[in-house]
Amino acid sequence: MLFRSDDEAPGSNNPRLRTSTRFNDHPTVKPVSLMRWLCRLITPPGGVILDPFNGSGTTGMAALDEGFRYIGIEREEHYLDISKRRIAHRARGEN
Length: 95
Fold this sequence. Notes:
Shape: globular
Order of helices and strands: HEHEH
Strand content: 5-15%
Structural class: mainly alpha
Strand order of the largest sheet: 1-2
Largest sheet: 2 strands, parallel
Number of helices: 3
Helix content: 25-40%
Radius of gyration: 13 Å
Oligomer: single chain
Number of strands: 2
């Protein structure tokens, strides 16, 4: 079964083609590396990142990696659950 995820898969630069045992069915998953770069690009040191379209939490993971505070807003409970699991997993250091 093929799952969309931002897990690093050898030889795959397309996040929609990466496979994982973790389930993330959000339709617009972005690479964490891209979101880390964007966070650094626009957020001052010690800043807070506000994401009004939290989705599956990729920006929250990137913010955590870069040492920023993060506020995510998501209206879909399903994606909020995915986001919480992914960010908590990242906070425990389990990339």
